[in-house]
Design brief:
single chain, mainly alpha, Rossmann fold, three-stranded parallel beta sheet, 10 helices, 40% helix
């Protein structure tokens, strides 16, 4: 049995290989792809293709037979969840051993590009004032696209982590700017309009965040910038063409006369 990758049959249209979704469905099934993962091409296109004679009932039946045969071999008709249970889920997810491994992998994945004048690690008992600035300064949604079933509530924000480590009287936290300022980006990503409005501040709010961040930066001896990509800017169909921080509006650029 052959299954497509996630929405790959639909993506035949985006890559110019198929004229439309129905044409993509025809070319995929004719090539021997039995299951259309996630996209609507088979669900919407196979019946019209059968009715107009482009696909035969025998070819569709053959794909269906391979799918049903595999499900039967796996015992899914007798046990649709095949041994899955809430008890097993609780026993295997977020265990201490897995949390420890995740922490170890995260630590090994960090890259310190330049530690000028041995600025790091920050001194817990020092007297320097620290400004934590950026859209991810106090944001828990940092898991990324392929965390799949991760929960933001399980993450530790930069603010929380630094507050546990530093004297909070020396720590100032400001958002500065939204992670994304371009409403068109959400539309182009196929997201509903209300998702964009829920994540993009109005101009007055953005200006207020900007001014507060600049003021905090000027008062600080050390500035930590917590920026990066939005979840939708990475993963499949989210590749970036330029290796730089995501573009933010010019009025959100932070400057400070102190080093």
């Amino acid at each position: 049995m052959v299954i497509s990758d996630y929405a790959s049959i639909y993506e035949l249209t985006q890559h110019g290989f198929a004229a439309n979704e129905q044409d993509a469905a025809y070319k995929a099934l004719d090539a021997g792809v039995d299951i259309d993962m996630k996209s609507p091409c088979y669900a919407n296109g196979l019946k019209p293709l059968l009715e107009d004679g482009r696909l035969s009932e025998e070819k569709i039946d053959a794909a269906v037979w391979r799918v049903l045969s595999l499900k039967n071999e796996l015992g899914l008709f007798e046990d649709p969840f095949r041994g899955s249970s809430e008890a097993l889920e609780k026993a295997n997810l977020l265990t201490p051993a897995k949390r420890q491994l995740a922490r170890k992998v995260s630590q090994e994945a960090m890259v310190l590009l330049k530690n000028e004048r041995h600025l790091l690690p920050l001194n817990r008992s020092g007297h320097r004032r620290v400004a934590l600035i950026g859209p991810y300064a106090d944001e828990s949604k940092m898991l990324g696209l392929w965390a799949i079933h991760g929960y933001p509530k399980d993450t530790i924000t930069f603010k929380h982590g630094l507050s546990e480590y530093l004297d909070t009287s020396r720590l100032t936290v400001e958002k500065g700017t939204d992670i994304i300022r371009d409403a068109d980006f959400f539309a182009e990503s196929g997201r509903p309009e209300d998702q964009a409005s829920g994540q993009i501040s109005d101009s007055a709010t953005e200006k207020k965040h900007h001014d507060s961040a600049v003021a905090a930066a000027k008062r600080a001896d050390i500035i930590i910038f917590a920026g990066g990509e939005h979840t939708l800017q990475s993963g499949e169909a989210g590749s970036r063409t330029k290796l730089r921080l995501p573009m933010i509006t010019s009025n959100a650029c932070l400057t400070s006369s102190r080093r």
